[in-house]
Amino acid sequence: MKMLSSGAVLAAISVGVASLACAQTAVPQGAPNAEWPTYGGDLGSTRYAALEQIDASNFGSLTVAWRFNTANLGPTPEYRFQSTPLVVDGVLYTTAGSRRAVTALDAATGEQLWVYSLNEGERGANAPRRLSGRGLAFWQRGSDKRVLFVTPGYRLIALNAANGQPIEKFGERGIVDLRDTLDQGGDWDTSQIGTHTPPTIANDVVMVGAAHTPLAPANQPNNVVGYIRGFDVVTGKLLWTFHTVPRKGEPGYETWLKGSAETGGGNAGVWGTISADEKLGLAYLPVESPYGDMYGGLRPGANLYGESIVAVDLKTGVRRWHFQTSHHPLWDYDIPTGPILVDAVKDGRTIKALAQATKQGLLFVLNRETGEPIWPIPETRVPQGKVPGEWYSPTQPIPTLRYGHQGIALDDLIDFTPALRAEAERVVAKHQLGPIYTPAVPYDANGPISTLMVMGGSNWPGGSYDPESHIVYVTSSVGVNSMTICRYAEGSKMPHGICLGPDAGAFGGVRNLSVQGLPLLKPPYGTIAAFDLTKGEKLWEIPNGDTPDAVKNNPALAGVKVGRTGRSGQPPGALATKTLLIAAEPGYGPTPDGKRGSMLRAYDKKTGRELAALQLPAPQSGSPMTYMLDGRQYLVIAVSGNDYPGELIAYSLPKPKAAAPAAAE
């Protein structure tokens, strides 16, 4: 196959513009009818509810209305309970437990109404994405109400929302085996594909994504591809398949040089949430990296649709436009969360848009009809690497809207004291530093032993959007990863990949880079940022969470005023209401009474000032949601961690005390 020039490759990966008529905007306005019917509150993943009973004056005095322990929903307790429940018609639905059961609860009391559990045996036990997952989907037509979810073993199941029984006429007695419609022949290890994420239902189409076993073994040059499929919500019939690694003759195939789409592809699934605009008839796919993670020598070229936002027709699955957020992915910068459908205002004109948070701490804001950037996203020259046989993109799209931290320079190192800074400089002297998109180094005993990169940004919990103020909120974590690429044994099908062995870190570099037990970089270690989409500007960015005990009590900081640093770890999901922005801090403590736990905090939406906080018994592990029922607003959150099994906790204002009965005469 003829090699493309850099200019031709970049032309091939530019935005594909759809010929859609410009119409007056109609963005999702958050969770409707004081309920929470979809994973993100609405199909636009806004995580917004126009409720105001809970506000700054009473958030700190909320009490537990009910709690639901999930420890017995499965053969063993689960300690990574990540669900966001749904609430429709006074019933709360959630996945839970180590076997991913589905249960319905009375949304006012937490009383269990029904439970469904499928024992998938070895298939479920060996699945790449096990445990309870992140939730489910709800659909209704008249009196026909259904909840749909994907099992660990990769089966799509439709249940009667009234009693939890499988819908007999959906698929085979309620079940569609997703391995049967992979559309790539039978020579694949189908046990390497699954998902944690709930399906998305829009215009009666059920869309299912895919996630994979991470990292590339030496004997496997490619993997099963995470094609995205749409099914009929009534019958379970397959309607369409979108090839996230294009086939010959399809747009994007030319960005896989030397025919590598057929020999070096794989993965490129969607493990984040699929968002949708039913009026435009479009679904928005946040596609992850292609196979190989940090090594792409077997897939030269830009590799569409890896790390791309792809808009597809809801009814046919045909691509309408795409935007690639990083070309020829080499940094595990999967797009981790559903695009947030927003109204952007530019030059006095309201534009139907989407805001995509990323692991890089870059916020991409695009016209959701055409994929064109709303604010500048220039192609910026980036460093080139030296791994033998690797292909590097000369530029990457880097937007002006940023949060968290990008790249590492000496000025980013810890500097609480001159001694700590000096030690930090000694630590990094053996490593390569650089701006965002600095590639991994090849292993060389005499050269830099790794490339240091910031790994954090946003993740699957995502952000939220206030449609009244046009403000997007995103959470972020800041950590350091060490990347080194090693040559695999002679004759291996994958010639290079991340280094393996007991001393290798997550990306094949070294483990535990720190300075006297302190993080290598300056704080903040986790943030929440707010972006005004009427101006295309960052309004504020604050440290998310208190200072960790390991920092506050470190002997090297005796006498040093540290201040609030925020906390690293899984960035939490954020919830916006009419009155508050609500998010928890990652990890355990410190809490006011010194007990293990975590704080759930309420912030002023316009300034980021903390207004009040509640103490959770364990960290937030699922994204918060809220609903109104019988005149009371409830705030529900999943917590879990370490030795604390998954639990749903519902908070509300204290019930008024009943009047004392009148004394008998």
Write the layout of secondary structure elements.
Layout: H1 6-12, E1 48-49, E2 63-69, E3 86-88, E4 91-96, E5 101-106, E6 112-116, H2 121-125, E7 137-141, E8 144-150, E9 155-160, E10 175-177, E11 193-194, E12 200-202, E13 205-208, E14 211-212, E15 228-232, E16 238-242, H3 260-263, E17 275-277, E18 282-286, E19 308-313, E20 319-324, E21 340-346, E22 349-356, E23 364-367, E24 379-381, E25 395-397, H4 418-428, E26 441-442, E27 451-454, E28 464-466, E29 471-477, E30 480-487, E31 496-498, E32 514-515, E33 518-519, E34 526-532, E35 537-543, H5 549-552, E36 575-577, E37 581-584, E38 598-603, E39 610-616, E40 625-629, E41 632-641, E42 644-652
Structure report:
The protein is mainly beta and 665 residues long. The radius of gyration is 24 Å and the shape is globular.
Strand content: 25-35%
Q: Count the beta strands.
A: 42
Largest sheet: 5 strands, mixed
Can you tell me the residue ranges where pLDDT is under 50 for at least 5 consecutive residues?
1-26
Oligomer: single chain
Describe this protein with a few key phrases.
disordered N terminus; 31% strand; globular; 5-stranded mixed β-sheet; 4-stranded antiparallel β-sheet; single chain; mainly beta; 665 residues
